[in-house]
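Materials and Methods. Structural model of Lysophosphatidic acid receptor 6-like. The 353-residue sequence of Lysophosphatidic acid receptor 6-like from Nothobranchius furzeri was retrieved and submitted for structure prediction as follows.
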Amino acid sequence: MMSTPSPVNFTANCTKHDDFKYPLYSTVFSIVFIIGLITNVVAIYIFTCSLKLRNETTTYMMNLVVSDLLFVFTLPLRVFYFINVNWPFGAPLCKISVSLFYTNMYGSILFLTCISVDRFLAIVHPFRSRMLRTKRNARIVCAAVWVLVLSGSLPTGFMLNSTTSNKKDNNTFCFENFSSNQWKSHLSKVVIFIETVGFFIPLLLNLFCSIKVLQTLRRPKTISRGGKVNKKKILRMIFVHLFIFCFCFIPYNVNLVFYALVRTKTLKGCFAESVVRTIYPIALCIAVSNCCFDPIIYYFTSETIQNSIKRKSPSDCSYDVKFSEAVQSEIPSNLQLNFRTLKAKVLHRESSV
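The predicted structure was written out as tokens:
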């Protein structure tokens, strides 16, 4: 195992002491790789084999799975680096690895937001949103998300010198030890962009959609026979969704703001620097764990997917499960009844013309 780099000055008078991050990273990233790979491969299997008929919600989920898997595949390289504190794979792979990290994090945030907005439209505006909630529109939204995420992650990965050398230990670092000038000239602008577009706006959207759905559930007219079951199902889905979103992404993104302030010397003082540098590795590990938590949204918030896992035969990939039934089961019962009644009236009128 290569020796860890000696402490270097982070600012003029402050010395960093955060080498604990290397064993922490190597342990957590190894666990995330194993669990994330297994759960997301299972998710791909469920979506491609069990859920033969797909809708806009599964479109968002499939893109979320792809985002997770792209990052998971880079984790072995990162684990090797954290164990040896040396990057022997060259600058291009370092750039790709870091770009995929930000692609995964902010892609996950935006796709989770898409799922939240889709649920909001389905429950709060079930009739007016029928023309919006289509697979075609979902694909357009997903394409826009990928363009937005890549426009932020690729510059971070490819416009900077990704590797730096330590001549004393003959080690190569991957995306570490950037100077204050690099932070001021480029990285601070990237942080502002990804924090605004990739975190704060999606956070507000998730909170707004969840609050509106909860307000809708409180209306007496939305609860009929069997409504309590549906209400419990929706509440479970909302709380799981918000927990994953807040637990994985708030610590890292809030700390990233302060980290950028320290690195650009906007926020000065060794105490602030020490706190930020100590929290950063822990928050990063929590953020990376979203690869493991994302599949919980697929498996435990949809009765249809749970049934498909229980009833699916490994040798049979033709089992037909309509995921739209899960979305419909999450809509209050009387709304479904009203929709069926409206549909019957329309068909009756057409037949009598």
